[in-house]
Amino acid sequence: MREVFGIRREERWAAVAVLLLLVALNAMVIARYYDFFTPLRDSYWGVFVKNFYISGFDPITYDVVSEWSAKYNVYRHPLLAFFMFIPYLLNQGLMWLTGINCAVFIVGLMLVLSGFYSFIFLRRICRDVVGVSNRDASLLSFFCFSFAYVMISSSVPDHFIMSMAMLLLALWLSGRKIMEKRQMGIWQTIILFVLTAGISLNNGVKIFLSGLFVNGKRFFRPKYLAFAVIIPSLLIWLFARWEYKVYVWPKEKARNELKAKQNAEKKARDYQALADSTGIKDKAKLDSVFKADQNRKMWAKYRSDHKKPWNMHAGKPISKGEFMRWTDISTPRWDSMVENWFGESLQLHRQNLLEDTLRSRPVIIYYQWMVNYVVEALIVLLFILGIIKGWRSRFLWLVMSYFAFDLLLHVGLGFGLNEVYIMTAHWAFAIPIAIGYALKAYGSKWLRWALTGVTAFLLVWNLALYVQFLLG
After folding, report:
1. pTM for the complete prediction?
2. What torsion do the CA atoms of 169, 173, 179, 185 make, to the nearest 10 degrees?
3. CB neighbours (10 Å) of residue 161?
C-alpha cells in the first residue's frame, strides 16, 4: 500500500502543483452550487437534476451520497452505488453535526484524490515503464491534465476520473509485470476487475486485456480463464440482475403504475370535458370524436418531441434492444473524430461552451480559429510518432488495446458518440504514454519544446474557458 499510494521524493513538486490545480477546480464547482445543494431537504434528486449543468455530466453521485439508493444504471455501473455507501454514511454523520448536506465536499474530496492518483500513476507509467526522464514524466502527465475533459472530469460528480485512476493503476501494475517478466495472478486480476468493472462495466474488459498482454499464452490456461475471467464476469452480471430486481424494478414498477393511473385519470377528464364542450349525447359518436382528438394530440406531441435536442441529437440506434438502443449509426464519424474525439475532448469550443447535447448544444461544433486545428493536428502527429517509435513495446500495445476498445465502442458502434468527449478520461492517457516513446527515442529539444508549448496552450485555453463558465 505504501508503494502504491506513497509519494516518492521525485514526485513531490509535480504532486503539489497538480493537487493545487485540482483543489482550485473543485472549489470553484462547489462554490457555484453551494447555495443550491447544501440545504437539508426531504428529497434531493429534483434539486440536483434541475440545477447542475456542466456539459453532459450527471449529478447522480451527489444524490447517492445524500440519500443512498441504486440510482446509477445497474448494468453499466453495477457496484458504484455500493462503493458510495461509506461516503453516504459519512455524509449522514456530517449532516447531523453541521446541519447542512456535505455531499459536495465529500464528492469533491473523492474527485481530488482520484485526479491526484491518476496523475501519479500516469507519471509512474511514463517514468518506470516507458523509461523517460523525471522531467519528461512530469511534462507528459501535465500534458494529459491540460486536456479539457480530463480537467473537467476531475471536478464534476461523475465516475469518469475514478475510472481513470483505476485504469492507470492497472496499466502501471501491468507494465511493471511485463518489465519484470512476472505473471498477473488470479486474485490480482479479480480485484482489478471488480474495481474497474464495478465503476463502469465496459472497463472490466480492459483488465482482461491486461491479463492477456501480461500473461501471454498462459492467459488461456483453463484455471486462469475460468477463475479470473469467466466466473467474475458471470458473477458481476448476475449481481447486476439481482440489483435491478431488488432495488430498481420495484421503484420502476411503482412509477409506471402511478403514471398509468394519472394517464387514465387525465383521459377520463379529457373525455368528460369533450362531452361537456360538444354536447354530443351519442356515446359511439363521442368515442369516435374523442379518439380522433387523442390521435391529433399524440401526433402533435410526437412532432414536438422529435424537434427537441434530446431526441434530435440521440442518433439512430442499430436496434432498440436492451443495449443496442445506446448505439448510433447516424452521427457523422469524421466530424465526430475531428471536432469531438480529438477536438472537444482536448480543447474546448468557445461556442456553446460546456452546454449539454441533450439540451442545447449541437452535436458538431467547428472551431472558429485555425490555431485550434493546428494544435489538434500537432497532438495527433505526436501521437502517431509515438506509436511508431514504440511499435515493438508490448506495453504500448496493451495501452493501445485499451484505446482501440474505446474507439470501437464509441466511434465504431456509436455508444455515446453524440457526447463522446465526456468519456475522455477512459482513453486520453494513451496519447501522452505513446508520445513518451517518441521523447525517449529522440530526446531532442524541439520535441520537448513542442510538447511544452502545446501543454501551456491547452492549460491556458481550457482553464480560461472553464473558469469563465464556472464564474459566469
Report:
1. 0.92
2. -150
3. 26
